[in-house]
Amino acid sequence: MSRRRFLQTGLVSASTLAFGCSEDDDAAIPHGKSCSDVFASDPASLGEALDTIPFVDQAGVEFHRKRGVGWDARLATDLSQLTIDNSIVSNERFYIRTEYPDQLQPDPEWRIEVDGLVDQPQDVPLSSLASRVQAMGAHVLECSGNGAGAAFGLLSAAEWDGLLLSDWFEMLDINAAATRVVISGFDAHSTPSVGGHSTPGASWVFSLQEVTDAGGFLATGMNGKPLPDDHGAPVRLFMPNWYGCCAIKWVDRIRFVDDTEPATAQMLEFAGRTHQTGAPALAADFKPATMDQAAMPIRIERWRVEGRVRHRIVGIMWGGYRPSGALTIQIGERDFERVAVCPPQTQNRSFTLWAHPFDAPGSGSYGVRMRIDDASTPQKRLESDFYYREFIVDDA
Ligand SMILES: Nc1nc2c(c(=O)[nH]1)N[C@H]1C(S)=C(S)[C@@H](COP(=O)(O)O)O[C@H]1N2
Ligand SMILES: [Mo]
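Above: query sequence and MTE SMILES. Below: predicted holo structure tokens.
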């Protein structure tokens, strides 16, 4: 994409660049920096917004347009547009991995089959659960197969509505022998996945404890609207902070089982991408497919400040159960340094925006790596530079 195009679309207003901190609001500025140090506070002090430098991985990626068919359908979200005031992605721009199955011709009344280790197997009309639906708040979803090929855009956050599974399960007379639950969704498409990349069958096995601990819910609404078709209408699973491959869409069956339950085809397909050791035969031997704390830059802004060009790197942080605000960044060959403005992360449900100033020492290509400077914070994907991104400065 040309520089000119970014001038038109990539610029955000100065006020959205402010990180909500003022000179006397020290709480918002960790690490002893003042807002002016990072030209992040007073929009007027930011100088003149010039444009945004794209990451090398963005070249050729067309965002917000669905491509491919069936299991291979993909829509990548342009994360460079996120701001501190709006880190929620609209339903039209939320990433898609697998589109509404062409073979799905549902009855007017959607039903979920509940069976296995329960006293009374039953077909539960979704409408009978409507009174349980409540606001579930903002949550990030990321495809475990996210990567540079999609400019890391298989990652989005939305506000969800749904019904808490643990509440519903209490009403179901589940047998004492049941320790796990298999949640399945419709998964038949007429067009096979290219190269057999995706295999039919969308089911994941969770322990009942995992469902309760994660606050797992059946989502029926997204950003205040009914769930869109491609996102699982009328009902999908959402396991907060678990990878997208567990977020089964078009949920049609819930089966209670015990620890002898084998891993599903879906679990085996995604074993590597969810950081399992090998591909365990038993579901009970799978580690929770949860996201460690992660971070990456989403845009490189150019500013003219007092006559000279300065860069500001803006990024996101998400994932993890005991998130840390000790975010560090390595730009090019420099040492890791603390990210200048990184709001202490006290929750991992939606994106946390951060910003860091950068004065390019010269023209050239710069790579960005992120780490959490805290040995007790799991960060598998940061440690492997999974979210490594590069940008080119050509006029320093
Ligand atoms: N039935 C069904 N559910 C599914 C899938 C699928 O192929 N079939 N893909 C999963 C994967 S790998 C991801 S990343 C998420 C994507 O959800 P989204 O398209 O709403 O972003 O859905 C999950 N649920
Ligand atoms: Mo995925």
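The pocket of MTE (ligand 1) is lined by residues 71, 94-98, 141, 143, 185-187, 202, 231, 244-245, 247-250 (CB under 6 Å).
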